[in-house]
Amino acid sequence: PPAPPTPGTPQFDAAVQQVLVEGTNLSDRDLRVVRYWDLGPGSSTPPGYWASDVGADALRNAPVADQASALALVTTATFDAGVATWDAKYHYLLVRPVTAIRSGASPQWLPSLQTPPFPAYTSGHAAFGTAAVTVLAALFPERADEFYDAAAEAGDSRVRGGIHYWFDALEGTRLGAKVGAAALARAG
User: Fold this and answer.
1) Could you say which of 125, 158, 160, 164 is catalytic?
2) Within 25-123, where are the H helices?
3) Rounded to two decimals, what is the model's pTM?
4) Does residue 78 contact residue 132 with C-beta atoms inside 8 Å?
């Protein structure tokens, strides 16, 4: 992905302010959505969610051989998205919103989600979800809107939860779409 906004620039400062405002003013529904997409310890985690929960549900009535090849394609796409995401995270080394917010606007502020111990840019949730749903939408075009809405909600939940900037989610989504399309192209 392209470089994120540089800390101290107006675009970065606006993104920090957005996280502070959205992360501080969550409705009950927003908080439920944020917690649903947390997918932390005890869950199948973000990549596993798309294969074991969404993919397996979509494939429930397919023949076993079709299930196996489709799930292999979904998991390959999500894990390739993970490689691309972590490459970006450690290339750009962008601080998490909580660090930027607490060092400036609100020294006591905390996000509603636990902040992961690795750089922010890009959003893994956005990349994993979009890579998986790009594949799933190709396999089940009649459910494409449902899949893409879920992936968008997952990426957005990380901004509302206070652990990502909007551009983390946007570029994670773009990255996931490219990875999902590449997985489909490789699979034919």
Assistant:
1) 125
2) 28-36, 45-48, 56-58, 64-92, 97-102
3) 0.91
4) yes
